[in-house]
Specification:
mainly alpha; Citrate Synthase, domain 1; 3-stranded antiparallel beta sheet; 55% helix; 3% strand; binds coenzyme A
């Protein structure tokens, strides 16, 4: 750097940077609230199905009865994945992580989709609906193949929630469980410019296609600071194992200055708008299954984190135990998040493409000054 050059302000992690406008959702950290297309997320969670919210995110308005019936019929008819993808899935390593499996499956769907190269709004939207329909099938097939089990054939009569349980667990649970799951899908569907959504927008900005953007977004979501936190939360609760030692366990984390998974948020600093609703349904799940340990440990941790660190839980904190109580194995938690967030990602992909400018920030160089390439004999 020459002495005359002054380093500009660097927004590491893009903290506080408004990178674009959006009409899809709004986070209001000052009131701990979140709206999708103007509707409060807790209102949607209590009063709508996940299919209605998917339609809302894409179309901008809630569907009427006919629109919803058409949307459900259209997407349910697209659920099956190709024999070629089933064959590839059967060859996936049995001990691979299900997030890597779904990332690979979505990439493969991009190889086969007849409209992959068509990035018109209409084709991109059709591909988004196909991904919404097929992702649970691929998650279920990969999970079951890893256990040596055959895939379950999707039933077009099933709701989105019924379908996910059927494809993974080969059962349709009771209505309270389905409602809790649907609520989690609604709460996970969209959240402004988070890391994976911004990844999807960034990929889209080069005029790459839907499958490319979603494959990249899945890679981003896997990280434990983002979607991977819901799995990490459950591993943590199982490691603690007993509410009586939760506070002591937390103290050892504080002593080591270690992160406590499921707490903190880049935007919310005084509470995540989605947590009260998800917590309510995780508590319902604890009663349905009659297994109160995990929520009891959660309450101890949340209380102590607030008292000692003034840090609130994020959505992954109640979602982790909720999925566990619904009977899902821990490595499936983040893939389930994918099955929901495909709606928000694709809404953003469509929005980015509709008013695109290549995303290309600058970096401030702090490396060595320019120098000549030395001959081989002079290198140390
Ligand atoms: N456990 C312990 N300390 C935490 C914490 C956590 N989960 N989250 C934040 N903090 C601490 C930070 O270490 C920092 O302390 P310091 O000021 O002494 O350095 C302080 O709180 C402020 O946090 P900050 O680093 O500004 O937050 P961020 O915006 O960079 O990070 C997350 C946000 C989500 C990455 C971070 O909270 C985190 O890693 N959480 C755990 C993973 C998780 O649950 N992710 C899902 C997010 S929805």
């Amino acid at each position: 750097m020459s002495e005359t050059e002054k380093q500009p302000e660097i927004y590491k992690g893009l903290v506080g940077v408004y990178a674009d406008v959006s009409t899809i959702s709004k986070v209001m950290p000052e009131t701990n609230s979140l709206t999708y297309r103007g509707y409060a997320v807790q209102d949607l969670a209590e009063n709508c199905s996940f299919e209605e919210v998917a339609y809302l995110l894409w179309e901008g308005e809630l569907p009427n009865a006919q629109q919803l019936a058409d949307f459900k019929a259209e997407t349910a008819a697209e659920r099956e994945i190709s024999p070629a993808l089933h064959a590839v899935i059967r060859h996936f390593p049995k001990d691979g992580h299900p997030m890597d499996a779904i990332r690979t499956a979505v990439s493969f769907m991009g190889l086969e989709d007849p409209e992959t190269a068509d990035v018109s709004q209409a084709a991109q939207y059709r591909k988004a609906k196909r991904l919404f329909a097929k992702i649970p099938t691929a998650i279920g097939a990969a999970y079951r193949a890893s256990k040596g089990l055959p895939p379950v054939v999707p039933n077009p009569k099933h709701s989105f929630a019924e379908n996910v349980f059927n494809l993974i667990q080969d059962r349709v649970p009771e209505p309270e469980v389905l409602k809790s799951f649907d609520v989690s899908m609604i709460l996970y569907a969209e959240h402004t410019f988070n890391a994976s959504t911004y990844t999807a927008r960034l990929i889209t900005s080069s005029v790459a296609d839907m499958h490319a953007a979603v494959t990249g977004a899945i890679g981003s979501l896997k990280g434990p600071l983002h979607g991977g936190a819901n799995e990490a939360v459950m591993h943590m609760l199982k490691e603690i194992g007993d509410p009586k030692i939760a506070r002591e366990w937390l103290q050892t984390r504080f002593d080591h200055k270690a992160l406590v998974m499921g707490f903190g948020h880049r935007v919310y600093k005084s509470g995540d708008s989605r947590v009260p609703t998800m917590k309510k349904y995780a508590e319902i799940m604890a009663e349905v299954v009659q297994d109160r340990t995990w929520m009891a440990i959660s309450r101890e941790l949340a209380d102590e984190m607030l008292t000692k660190k003034n840090i609130h839980p994020n959505l992954d904190f109640p979602a982790g135990p909720a999925y566990y109580l619904m009977g899902f194995e821990i490595p499936l938690f983040t893939p389930i998040f994918v099955a929901s967030r495909i709606t928000g990602w694709s809404a953003h992909i469509l929005e980015q493409a509709a008013d695109n400018r290549l995303i290309r920030p600058l970096s401030w160089y702090t490396g060595l000054e320019q120098r000549p390439v030395p001959p081989m004999s002079a290198r140390g």
